[in-house]
Amino acid sequence: MKSIIHLFFILLICTKVVAQGCSDAGACSLDFYYSQNETTDGIDYKNSLKFGNVVALGEQNTFINSNYLMLTRQVSKNFGAEIKITSAYINGELGSNFNVGDIFIKGSYFWKTILKTDISFLAAVKVPLKNGNFTKSGTSLPMVYQTSLGTHDLVFGYQTKWKRLEFFNLIQIPMTQNQNKFFASYSPNLLFPSTNQFTRKPDIIFSIAYNHFIEKAKILFGGQVLTIYHLGKDSFVDESNKRKDIDGSEGLTINLNAMIGYGINARNNLQLSAATPVLVRKERPDGLTRKFTAELNYQYSF
Q1: CA of 154: how far to CAs of 59, 174, 204, in Å?
Q2: For position 12, what pLDDT does the model report?
């Protein structure tokens, strides 16, 4: 077990290349369903409250500390509901920003097949609490300084669980665009791309994960390969009022994630995770580029 923990922290510390975080403001951290499991105290808890804190280093050494609060309710044997709210503190050479981000509202449906395979479907909506145009002294800042992309999104997906393996596939579709007005000429030495009247394409997300629970030690550890395919080039409107594509903003990102969790008791759980990339896109104008990402979350069931 010590070697597993050491490996996890080596992964966390040695992230030296640019990574994409998980897609927009946590679509792939939405729980698919809240399964009905009898705990060690003999009670089926139908609710959970989770708080997560994520630390990351973004473009041009921008420090990002984001948080979320997530309430999950098992409505029935097959239906679950969830609401999640995010916030972030961002600090860099161009300024700092601390504010709320987005609200996710999600519903899911779950059933167990005759082959003892768990299958679930998810539908969610993301509602921005900010318009993606935080300013300093009247000047718009790049997207990495925004606590929200400022877009209304739809998220659809499915998940399959078989023994210790989990597979899921999601699509996140922006239905509106934000109000950012940043031009690269505002910070020519920092190489942020222009995002005036920014238009962002959808993401398709696919994941395969392996989880192993050591019952005697109450420890869960796992690994994940997470791929995010950005469906086309993002675009912006330049100073001459012409819309231009952002070359290199389309394509594939692949992340390797590691996780270790500890069950304090039947009601309380802690989880630590970290991510590092193996393949990245050339341009990330949405500000989601990360040099490393680490998360600690706590869940209370009731």
Answers
A1: 27, 7, 12
A2: 41
